[in-house]
């Protein structure tokens, strides 16, 4: 994927000043050519608790990757009825627009010494701006709200739209996510960011394995020095509902067959990343439920999204949709062909 070193500026251009705040106003234009920039970890910030948690996670990820952190702030237009209020008018809104990203960046610099932080304030349709920002980033990080109805997480329409359209990895981080949540407990049973990382969990379709998805997951495990748990689900045989004679033998045969298929897909990647301890988990059951259960103790869950072109537009598969709504850990959605 890459060797983790920062990439310098494009030839013939000057590198930006370290930790410089850029206020750039751009109208969203899907036909505008995206400027080629140095690689970054980019986070969408709107001032909400979930976006602030996403910014902290993105800062830690930028340090793991030895890359700058870019904070992209897309202010919402001020409603007309508020624009006329003396205390909440355009001037107050403008000050907030200017201060919020710069203050957030300064806080990150204090909590993560040595990290390069760049801020951009952009105007336009939020989903369009974030998709453009993702195009020039190693990955884009967004916040996801807390629990909603039926025990699942609330994933906003903007986040879902970006996940469905972006062609670079997008990570969704829950409100309240802390660094210690990604690590094992210390010997006293106390949460700690100084202990080893919890496993990286990869949801894998052995019938259609993709190199982009596999490389992202192995790379994430290497950077965290964490084990990689590769999860594959296979459906229960139809005869199991009727308890025919020989069902046990059929089940055992299918179990061995699917375990062998998973091992075959992973073998070349284990050779490429020999330092990663891989746990192969081939389970019978619903793919979505198997993955959600396997990711209960994950530091990061990694799922794929097939890029589809056609009249039906962007699409998020049901397994990825379930991961976004039911996995507590940060979820990386990796688009692939």
UniProtKB/TrEMBL annotation:
Entry-linked Pfam families: Usp (PF00582)
Tree of life domain: Bacteria
Domain (UspA): residue spans on this chain: 37-174, 197-334
Matching SUPFAM superfamilies: Adenine nucleotide alpha hydrolases-like
Stated family: Belongs to the universal stress protein A family.
Protein name: UspA domain-containing protein
Native organism taxonomy: Bacteria, Bacillati, Actinomycetota, Actinomycetes, Kitasatosporales
